Amino acid sequence: MRYLPLTDTDRSAMLDVIGAPDIDALFADVPEEARLSGPIEGLPMHASEMAVEKHMRRLSKKNLAASDAAFFLGAGAYKHHIPASVDHIIQRGEFLTAYTPYQPEIAQGTLQMLFEFQSQVARLYGCAVANASMYDGSTACWEAVAMAGRVARGKKRKVVLSGALHPHYAEVVRTMAKFTDDEIAGAPPSLTAKPDDDGLIARIDADTSCVVVQYPDILGRLPDLAKIAAAAHDKGALLIAVNTEPVALGAIKSPGELGADIVVGEGQAIGVGLQFGGPYLGLFAVRDEKHVRMMPGRLCGETVDAEGKRGFVLTLSTREQHIRREKATSNICTNSGLCALAFNVHMTLLGEKGLRRLAMENHRLACLAADRLAKVPGVTVLNDTFFNEFTVLLGTDARTVVRQLADDGVLAGVSLGRLFPGSGNLANGLLVAVTETTTEEDIETLASALEEVLA
């Protein structure tokens, strides 16, 4: 019994200590009708470790791996090439440390890495300060909303969400807002070539603490952040920019440069593989240094020791596990240290020129894909602008098309009907993502498959 090491004798001894006659007595408060009368129907009984391994291996062969198909999935998680050197470096003994340096100054290597990571994120986002990573992009989004409430000192509680914010991010915000007094003002996405910036601006009022805008948005479009920032600031609100594809910032202006006050996002695209959906990496930065003490999470700083030598310290770590308790700036600010290290290493290997070249290749291939798909009868490209992800409209429910193409070995993209269930006008939309891992042959395969299915 590999995972259940207790013997019947062990269990009897434990029951004697707590004074219970048998294990059933531990569940006396559970109503009889809620208890199982026997094994769960349909589930197999226990088996040997070798038998389980063989069974799971057979099941895994039914999967279609990302590397075994023409792959066009995105919507917040992107397939990029990660050099083998990234995986090698992050496994070196200098970096294989414990989860969190609670006596941080001993771990100078870890702190230096986090300091460099913060510097990279701040530069990427066009901000003054970044923290030492967060749980993932969606929870970082909520953390930004909560921070905006602190900046407003609770006097403003309206949170305006762009209709083109990733629906999973919006759902996290709504879920967490159930435990606060925040009023979440959302809207359905507009299925138009350009984002409805004017409609978003019209929803900002004097009670608004922050406006949350994705850049590029969930349909791949580029909102006018500078215009939205000016409107938000005019009402005394903060602009929170959400970025799910950091490679895009090698080609487009940074959110901080365009006036965003808080910039958050998902760092998975750089250094971190798809990994069946996680673990991923939350990025968080602020444009104005005056907001630093309102930031959640950890912050690494550079200093000098008693001998004047350069050193690093963990500072402003006002989280619940430390001294702040219920006054902490966050309760979900897990530092994704290993993923941050992978991001740091990959970004260092790329450098600024490498990131810009990578971004240009992503955009070039995406343009080729958009042009080719536009020639397929029954397919309309929605976007006027995009980076490496765009929306196409089909003459039928995109979920059915995606399923048919997957059966043929083509992972065509993410249907908007899946992202926005119940929104009838979005059902025909398909979100297509193209990265440097996509070949021109893959693009032709997708186009040909679409022609066949739609015909």
TrEMBL record:
It catalyses: N(6)-[(R)-lipoyl]-L-lysyl-[glycine-cleavage complex H protein] + glycine + H(+) = N(6)-[(R)-S(8)-aminomethyldihydrolipoyl]-L-lysyl-[glycine-cleavage complex H protein] + CO2. InterPro entries: GcvPA (IPR023010), GDC-P_N (IPR049315), PyrdxlP-dep_Trfase (IPR015424), PyrdxlP-dep_Trfase_major (IPR015421), PyrdxlP-dep_Trfase_small (IPR015422). Gene3D superfamilies: Aspartate Aminotransferase, domain 1 (3.90.1150.10), Type I PLP-dependent aspartate aminotransferase-like (Major domain) (3.40.640.10). The keyword Phosphoprotein does not apply. SUPFAM superfamilies: PLP-dependent transferases. Residues 1-449 form the Glycine cleavage system P-protein N-terminal domain. The glycine cleavage system is composed of four proteins: P, T, L and H. In this organism, the P 'protein' is a heterodimer of two subunits. Belongs to the GcvP family. N-terminal subunit subfamily. This is Probable glycine dehydrogenase (decarboxylating) subunit 1. It comes from Qipengyuania citrea.
